[in-house]
Design a protein that fits this description.
A 4-stranded antiparallel sheet has the order 2-6-4-5. Strands 1-7-3 form a 3-stranded antiparallel sheet. A 3-stranded antiparallel sheet has the order 8-10-9. The chain has helices at residues 5-8, 12-15, 19-26, 83-87, 109-116, 122-147, 150-164, 174-181, 185-197, 213-219, 223-235, and strands spanning 30-34, 39-41, 49-53, 57-63, 69-75, 95-100, 102-108, 169-171, 201-204, 207-210. It has 11 helices and 10 strands. It folds into 2 domains: 5-143, Jelly Rolls (Sandwich), CATH 2.60.120; 149-220, Arc Repressor Mutant, subunit A (Orthogonal Bundle).
């Protein structure tokens, strides 16, 4: 399916490219629909494509030998899945799984590398900055999971998620959220209950709606603000 530049700019990274660069890759990208739970890549397998989400959200997970896992970072319409391809590793011990069903633009790894290696283009500088923003998210997530309460972690995760979904309505079970945060389901149930009682969210089986974003930001730790500010700084004005 041939895409137009108007449709491609739904992704923030693609929207930051020059008109010339965007036009050049538009005919080489495929619009794909991603299903909830779909595995885009598994640990230590060669990555074939990069994905630029628009309405979908991809979760980057690290899995232990026992099968336990936790989210290291999430990628939505602000970013790209497939960083190992441009860093030269081509594989990673992590996995990428669809957290929220939706659409994304898919680009073959060879085309991505060619665009990235074009030193005169904006793609190179833009993706390097995005990698720094992604690293910030990973570092902040690690610190948050270690030092902040489950309620604060849940607030951070909800805020980052709704930034990528304008409706503010998440199709998400407490069990899935617990897997994302790497905590017990009972802890998420308690934290979600407290947030619901305070009017921040409304929860019913499989659905979470953010009702009061400002109150949710107050209850969150500083980690959400750090991640958002760094992303805006790094890819907000790339020249």
């Amino acid at each position: 399916m041939q895409l137009t530049t108007n449709s491609l700019i739904q992704n923030r990274l693609l929207a930051a490219l020059s008109e010339q660069e965007l036009s050049r890759i538009a005919s080489r990208m495929d619009l794909v629909t991603l299903r909830l739970g779909e595995m885009l890549y598994e640990p230590n397998q060669l990555l074939q494509y990069a994905y630029f989400p628009t309405t979908s959200i991809i979760s980057l997970h690290y899995v232990t030998e026992t099968g336990a896992s936790a989210e290291a970072a999430g990628v939505g319409n602000e970013g790209m899945v497939g960083v190992p391809l441009i860093l030269g590793g081509n594989t990673t011990p992590s996995s990428a799984v669809v957290q929220t069903a939706g659409q994304a633009y898919r680009l073959d790894r060879h085309i991505l590398k060619a665009e990235f290696n074009n030193s005169s283009g904006l793609m190179n500088r833009l993706l390097l900055r995005y990698i720094q923003a992604l690293m910030t998210q990973m570092f902040q997530t690690a610190a948050c999971n270690r030092h902040h309460s489950v309620e604060q972690q849940l607030c951070r995760w909800l805020l980052l998620t709704v930034d990528r979904i304008p409706s503010g309505e998440l199709k998400m079970t407490q069990e899935l959220v617990a897997n994302m945060l790497g905590v017990r389901r009972e802890s998420v149930t308690e934290a979600a209950g407290a947030l619901q009682n305070s009017g921040c969210i409304r929860y019913r089986r499989g659905h979470i709606a953010v009702l009061d974003r400002k109150k949710l930001e107050v209850k969150s730790c500083e980690c959400y603000g750090v991640v958002k500010k760094e992303l805006d700084r790094l890819i907000g004005n790339v020249t």
